């Protein structure tokens, strides 16, 4: 009988603060100018005035996550736009993992 094993990227196993995804509604408060070397693209403020981050693609790849950003988000997310999203707490930040329109 052949056994199959699930392999996880090493980075995920090293991030014990990662938790189950939660849903939230928030407003885009800050947009990266894409010219400087920010590790985030958008900062969203949630209903409790907490900050949630949409990170740049390399962050998601490094941590074995799928980026929530598509061309649609890049074209439509401007300051004061309201969105629904899912997030996880990872590395002491609220990281957005899915955007719902």
Radius of gyration: 15 Å
Let me know the largest β-sheet.
5 strands, antiparallel
End-to-end separation: 46 Å
Give the averaged pLDDT, no decimals: 84
What does this structure look like?
With 101 residues, the protein is α+β, with helices and mostly antiparallel strands. It has three helices and five strands. The chain has helices spanning 10-13, 57-62, 71-76; strands at residues 22-31, 40-46, 51-55, 82-90, 93-100. It has a five-stranded antiparallel beta sheet. Strand 2 (40-46) and strand 3 (51-55) form a beta hairpin. The longest helix has 6 residues, at 57-62. The chain is globular and about 30 Å long. 16% of the residues are buried. Mean pLDDT is 84; it is low at 4-17.
Properties at a glance:
single chain, 101 residues, alpha+beta, 5-stranded antiparallel sheet, 3 helices, 16% helix, 39% strand
List the helices and strands and how they pair.
Elements: H1 10-13, E1 22-31, E2 40-46, E3 51-55, H2 57-62, H3 71-76, E4 82-90, E5 93-100
Antiparallel strand pairs: 1-2, 1-4, 2-3, 4-5
């Amino acid at each position: 009988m052949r056994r199959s094993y699930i392999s996880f990227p090493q980075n995920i196993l090293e991030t014990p603060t990662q938790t189950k995804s939660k849903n939230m509604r928030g407003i885009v408060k800050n947009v990266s100018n894409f010219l400087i070397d920010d590790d985030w693209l958008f900062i969203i403020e949630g209903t409790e005035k907490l900050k949630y981050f949409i990170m740049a693609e390399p962050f998601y790849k490094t941590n074995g996550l799928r980026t929530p950003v598509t061309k649609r988000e890049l074209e439509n997310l401007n300051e004061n736009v309201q969105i629904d999203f899912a997030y996880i707490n990872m590395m002491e930040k609220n990281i957005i993992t899915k955007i719902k329109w």
